[in-house]
Amino acid sequence: MSFLLKSMVSSQLKGFGLGGSSEEKKEDGEGSDPAAAQGMSREEYEEYQRQLVEEKMERDAKYNQKKAERATLRVHLREKYRLPQSEKDDNQIQMAGDDVELPEDLQRMVAEDQDEEEEKNSILGHIQSIQNLDMDTIKEKATATFTEMKQAAEEKCCMM
């Protein structure tokens, strides 16, 4: 990193005219060597290029991991809401190595959603939803159904 700082500072000083003019003349003469154009020795330049490649690989790996995490979340949501699956998401998960896990925040969200679904499907959930219904409407439907059943029974039965 020191060579990176050195190259940045020296190039800035050259831009202000504080750098030696002999160095500028050398650079004009040696245009084919990229290390000299950057103001570094050959070893420093190779180390710098290697670090750039490593950093790019790390960024790409993190980016692919994030994409796979998002794809995993989409897969979970599609399963939950019974939507069709996407091949694109499956491919992203496979590219990340199939060892993708949801981040903790997303795991908590999925767990909360599952708890809510279980609560709605339980007896207590049904009782709570019944409390929100209009009782007059339920009574009207029940009496209408009872009347229809009574009429159907009278038509079929000779005794009534």
Automatic annotation (TrEMBL):
Residues 13-49 are annotated as: Disordered. It is found in: Synapse. One of its GO terms (molecular function) is syntaxin binding. CDD domains: Complexin_NTD_CPLX_III_IV. The keyword Aminoacyl-tRNA synthetase does not apply. Its main location: other. One of its GO terms (biological process) is regulation of neurotransmitter secretion. InterPro entries: Synaphin. Pfam families: Synaphin (PF05835). This is Complexin 4. The gene is CPLX4.
